Amino acid sequence: MVVPLCPCHMRVFSSKSTTVHPSPDLKNQKIEGIAKTTKIESSVHQNPEIKNAPNADDVDVMGAMKAELQTIKDTFSLRDVPRDSLYIGIAGILPYAATSLSTIYLAWDINHTDLYGSGFLFSPETAHHLLELITPIQIGYGAIIISFLGAVHWGLEYAGFGGRHSYRRLMYGVIAPIIAWPTLLMPVETALISQFLAFNYMYFVDARATVKGWFPPWYSIYRFVLTFFVGATIVVSLIGRGQIVRPEQNHLKSLQEKAKSDREYQLADSQSEENARREVDESSEEI
């Protein structure tokens, strides 16, 4: 006789007798996930780019350097300066560049004559003559430019740019020529150094005036770039003149060489006399 089972017995029987087997797709997904995790961890430990990645301090330093370079680039680009003012300003630098490079070449040609007995392109007399012509041109041109920088203050005061400031602005138009023109009476090196300082002083004045609103906003950057190149040409001229061999240096050198040769001759003469005396003494002892 077969006894029918109740539903509760059937549930117990089915739960005990049946086992749930995971599907093969689920196993493959787990294995692939573990493999990917292992691969990522191994790549993190083995990848030198990730291992040697720059830290935050290096990134900050690099960012600061890029910002500084961008600032320098923006400063020398002069994008806000009107084109006509920019072109005329560049043209005003050309005489300085010409006289400065000419000074360097003539100084080299004069030294070439001192070393090899003849100039490369000019004779010593011609090179000295050209140098004596170029130097007053550079100094006189510098005095004119410095005076012009002061006159700009007068023009903007008359135009009323930035308001009326009377003597506070007009005085710079007087100070500039007072500084500039006495340099024509100074020795060459002193005049060039004085004009170098005068150009920097006028730039400082113009930069402060721009902050006060007396000049357009682009004027201080414009003046900085022009002053930078003018100052560089003056320094080049000073270096070139400092390398010239002076006649008095040659004279002193010849005197030193003559004194040295005289000492050597005296030492050789005294040595020969000493040797002759010894020979006489030895011969007398033998007798």
Automatic annotation (TrEMBL):
InterPro entries associated with the record: DUF3429 (IPR021836)
Biased amino acid composition, Basic and acidic residues: 256-266
Transmembrane feature ranges: 86-108, 139-158, 170-198, 218-239
Region feature (Disordered): 256-287
Sorted UniProt keywords: Membrane, Transmembrane, Transmembrane helix
Entry protein name: Putative mitochondrial inner membrane protein 1 protein
Organism of this sequence: Golovinomyces cichoracearum
